[in-house]
Amino acid sequence: MRSINFNRNRTHVVNFLSWCRKHALLVGVFVLGLNSACAADWPRQVTDSRGVHQLASAPQRIVSTSVTLTGSLLAIDAPVVASGATTPNNRFADGQGFLRQWGEIAKQRNVARLYIGEANAEAVAAQMPDLILISATGGDSALALYDQLSTIAPTLIINYDDKSWQALLTQLGEITGHEQQAAARITEFNQQLAAAKTHMKLPPQPVSALVYTPAAHSANLWTRDSAQGQLMQQLGFTLAPLPAGLQASQSQGKRHDIVQLGGENLAAGLNGEALFLFAGDQKEADALSANPLLAHLPAVRNKRVYALGAETFRLDYYSATRVLQRLSTLFG
User: Fold this and answer.
1) Secondary structure E strands in the chain
2) I need a surface site. Which of 43, 178, 256, 259 has the fewest CB within 10 A?
3) Is the CB of residue 117 less than 8 Å from the CB of residue 101?
4) Which superfamily, per CATH, for 44-195?
5) Fold of domain 200-331
6) 48-97: per-residue pLDDT in tens?
7) 8 Å CB contact between 123 and 129
8) Which pLDDT band holds residue 24 (cuts at 50, 70, 90)?
């Protein structure tokens, strides 16, 4: 029978436990260092149109009153607990009133619906947020409630109508402490964009990018400053300039991203050699092509009216990726 040296085994056990304690201490120091580094980034100062705001710590309960901003927050894994919504089950929103490109992700993360359409301060307060985000313009802006909302939690006004979705993502990353996630998403997309450009053969230029509303025979034309316009330009498209003297209407505050076209201005404003319909499927493209007032347009005559999908109404990481995939299919 084999003899057992208990003293030697006890020594091995002691050495092993000592090794475990040493490495556990090192891991603890490493984690503490990470936490200290993260904590060192706060408080942060953020400037918006109302001045300078100080955020004491990284937000843990963000309420987005803007359905447009919510997709970008989800893309960087920011802790969104609730979001404003639009009319449910329309061409670009799901049953919750969340935009289709990220509605399922919001469901998985248990994002609550605040309200449909008009903002409600009581609904926001009920979520006990530590940060509230408002869009500066657009139909989803809760700017009128700023004074009420700012008594609930730090409230920031975000402009999305004058920048690319990548710039918006970067801004939100800095506000929430999720800069690394924002940078990773942008890098991932830019790699896909660069690959797509190498094999895309573009149609005749310049082009027009728009949202078409068949029932009203009207359109919102995306400008060069819009996220949609900037994405098209990043892919090599040239946006057609508006004819001189065209009188376009304005609504929803002074906006930089759209020009509203209707009546006699509709045909004049859609002067691109190709028309790209955001927030629209083939049904909207067919309706535009069938409009007798637009039959003379070069894009209609030459059958260059392209639908980019109902989920592209507002651009964020998710919808921009779908636009890229659609354009690669059309012109790859």
Assistant:
1) 44-48, 51-55, 62-64, 80-85, 112-116, 131-135, 155-158, 208-213, 218-222, 258-262, 275-277, 305-307
2) 43
3) no
4) Nitrogenase molybdenum iron protein domain (3.40.50.1980)
5) Rossmann fold (3.40.50)
6) 999 999 999 999 999 999 999 999 999 999 999 999 999 999 988 999 99
7) no
8) very low
Q: Which distant-in-sequence residues (6+ apart) come within 8 Å of 217 by Cβ?
A: 262, 266, 291, 293
Q: Say which amino acid occupies 199.
A: H
Q: How many CB atoms lie within 10 A of CB 300?
A: 18
Q: What DSSP line would sit under 32-48, residue for residue?
A: HHHHHHHHHT-SEEEEE
Question: Where does the pLDDT of residue 4 fall: very low under 50, low under 70, confident under 90, or very high at 90 and above?
Answer: very low
- The tokens describing 120, both together, are 């409600």
Global pTM?
Answer: 0.83
The full DSSP string for 256-312 is SSEEEEETHHHHHH--SSSEEETTB-HHHHHHHHH-GGGTTSHHHHTT-EEE-BGGG
Among 102, 5, 119, 1, smallest CA distance to 63 is for 119
Instruction: Report percent pLDDT > 90 for the chain.
Output: 77
Q: Is 141 exposed, middle or buried (0-12, 13-18, 19+ CB in 10 A)?
A: buried
For residue 21, is pLDDT > 90? no
What's the average model confidence in pLDDT over 264-289? 96
CB 144 within 8 A of CB 57: no
* Average pLDDT value over all residues in the chain: 88
Whether 308 and 330 have beta carbons less than 8 Å apart is answered as no
Euclidean distance between CA atoms 202 and 92, whole angstroms:
27
